[in-house]
Design a protein that fits this description.
The chain has about 300 residues and is α/β, with parallel strands linked by helices. The protein is about 40% helix and about 15% strand. Helix 4 links the parallel strand 3 and strand 4. The longest helix is centred in the last third of the chain and has 19 residues. The structure holds N-carbamoyl-L-aspartate. The site of N-carbamoyl-L-aspartate has 11 residues, from helix 2 and helix 6. Belongs to the aspartate/ornithine carbamoyltransferase superfamily. ATCase family. Its EC number is 2.1.3.2.
């Protein structure tokens, strides 16, 4: 097993599949009356969040607690710790506390990689800037596999603000390793030139959502990340929704079996309408539940739970 999980590219097909299979076993724990395993008793997991988070943070906390680890939550919001030097000082503090795993979310792309140089424990990237979010890609892959029965050969459309999306990057890397075919869809201003080829050969790009819908098994809608936009990338929210938003009539163009995903948080009415988000094709709530099982599997495997 790998020591850190920093990128979707850290996972080969065997390792990724091992994580997904382990997550399936972890999911069984969630159905029990006592949702706890003793696997990580006496180990310390630190959640180091320098950026806002609801789902990711809560689910890492729940995952560590269900494995009986001691959990320390560190929130840097509002302090001046976002500079490289301070991150190093924080790392040394975590080191002194004997953290076995550090789960880090940081606005700077690459911060978790730096952290991994400074601590002895495992580092898990819970989202770094616009770069990567590998556990989100794993929970997305888990959700697709459990709904559609396989990953190899699936056609996955990743739609919207690809430019700012760490979710998109990690998904392209992981899904192509697992044999799915990804097409990035959005306005040209939000799809970086050459991104498809740079991440994984075989990744497609299309600027017209209606063209890709009839042949998609999965449509993954991305949030328009206005907080990361200093420019106007499209004329108006209405115009964006008209061309790239998923609404009822568009959803009807999908094959019968196709599912609709979104990592959350959603801009309801912009990239997705409430009708679609709350429909039976939507896996949005399932993705959150699966996130706990997948993060349990990641912590368990990284911390050597399988060797104990
Ligand atoms: C995403 C993130 O923070 O990268 N959310 C998540 O982790 N569920 C996507 C987003 O913020 O749009």
């Amino acid at each position: 097993m790998i020591r850190h999980l920093l990128s979707g590219a850290d996972l080969d097909a065997d390792t990724a599949t091992q994580i997904l299979d382990t997550a399936e076993e972890m999911a069984a724990v969630a159905g029990r009356e006592v949702k706890k395993l003793p696997a990580l008793r006496g180990r310390t997991v630190v959640n180091l969040f320098y950026e806002d988070s609801t789902r990711t943070r809560i689910s890492f906390e729940a995952a560590a607690k269900r494995l009986s680890a001691d959990v320390i939550n560190f929130s840097a919001k509002g302090s001046s710790v976002a500079k490289g030097e301070s991150l190093k000082d924080t790392a040394l503090t975590l080191q002194a506390m004997g953290a076995d795993a550090v789960v880090v979310r940081h606005p700077a792309s690459g911060a978790p990689h730096r952290l991994a140089d400074w601590v002895d424990g495992s580092v898990v990237n819970a989202g770094d800037g616009t770069h990567e979010h590998p556990t989100q890609a794993l929970l997305d892959a888990y959700t697709m596999r459990s709904r559609l029965g396989r990953l190899a050969g699936l056609s996955v459309a990743v739609v919207g603000d690809v430019l700012h999306s760490r979710v998109a990057r990690s998904n392209v890397l992981l899904l192509s390793t697992l044999g799915a075919k990804v097409t990035l869809v959005g306005p040209p201003t939000l799809i970086p030139v050459d991104i498809a080829a740079a991440l994984a050969p075989g990744t497609g790009v299309c600027y017209d959502l209606d063209t890709v819908l009839p042949s998609s098994d999965v449509v993954m809608m991305l949030r328009v990340q206005r907080e990361r936009m200093s420019d106007s990338y499209f004329p108006s929210a209405r115009e964006y929704a008209r061309r790239y938003g998923l609404d009822g009539p568009r959803m009807a163009r999908l094959p019968e079996h196709a599912i609709v995903m979104h990592p959350g948080p959603m801009n309801r009415g912009m990239e997705i309408t409430p009708e679609v988000a709350d429909s039976s094709r939507s896996t949005i709530v399932e993705q959150v539940a699966n996130g706990v099982s997948v993060r349990m599997a990641v912590l368990y495997l990284l911390l050597g739970g399988n060797n104990r």
